[in-house]
Amino acid sequence: MEPVSHFFYSHRLKLQFWDFGGDAKPSVILVHGGLDHARNWDWVAAGLSPDYRVYALDLRGHGNSAQAQGAMYSLAEYVLDLSALLDIIDDFPVYLIGHSLGGFIVTHYAGVYPDRVKKLVNIEGFGFPKGHKVHAAYSDRLRRWMEGMRDVEKREPRPYPSLESAIARMKEANPHLTDEQARHLTLHGTNWNSDGSLVWKFDNYARLFPPYGHNLDDVREVAGRITCPVLLFWGEESFMQNPEEDGRTGWISNTKLVRVPGAGHWLHHDRLDLFLSETRKFLAE
Predict the structure, then answer these.
(1) Global pTM?
(2) Mean pLDDT value across residues 23-47
(3) What are the chain's domains?
(4) Strands, sheet with 94-99, edge to edge from the N-terminal-most edge strand
(5) CA 206 – CA 158 distance, rounded (Å)
(6) Radius of gyration of the chain from its Cα atoms, rounded to whole angstroms
(7) pLDDT in tens, 113-144
(8) Residue 256: CB partners within 8 Å, gap ≥ 6?
(9) Cα–Cα nearest to 56, from 77, 195, 207, 65
């Protein structure tokens, strides 16, 4: 069965979340990554639904949620939206699972409200290591953001002439995807134009890194306030760095890292079997 679509309001924005059902079961909330959408979790939700009430959030500017005109798409704004949704669900303490940007968001929520999170699963969402451009001098970050913003203002979303061409782009981004996965992700991640072409649902302005929100000292302080057990995943073929290499995993007191062979950044697609096995075991412990 298809999940049920609901909308809620946060920061004057109309945002969507999906309810996969399961009354009287513990709540698990899934938060996707940047330029993605909530229905990328469908396979994970199917694997968790027998034991949990699963919800998946479309972040602002993504999926079927409203685009945030004039906002910065900052980490603080994303965490605010998650907080509003969790207050609506009102089943504390909750289980949180996030991928990439979504992992960064749920990690920050767990540090700000440690008593509200029972367990946390983070897929390659621990932030960027020292040396990444998001940690440059503030003046450099501010200039890069402003110039990037002016550049995006001149761009129109790229149209794809057919569903097949958009699917091909999806598979180019992640060659591990099966044809079925790529089609599902593309169908839920695009809108049709009047001429029959397709564009991705995400707001192009969400591509930019805001000039604040990634400070390593701030991230270390937030991560150090997390009291629940945390399960981290890292794909051995990912473009993201292993967070153990520079000690970032040590910022959380109770954490375990699972290295996933044969998987890239979207390891919950690439090795769904392993991800579900490890996650179900972790949540049930």
Answers:
(1) 0.98
(2) 97
(3) 4-157+208-284 (3.40.50.1820)
(4) 4-10, 13-19, 53-57, 27-31, 94-99, 117-123, 230-235, 255-260
(5) 15
(6) 18
(7) 999 999 999 999 999 999 999 999 999 999 99
(8) 229, 230, 231, 232, 282
(9) 65
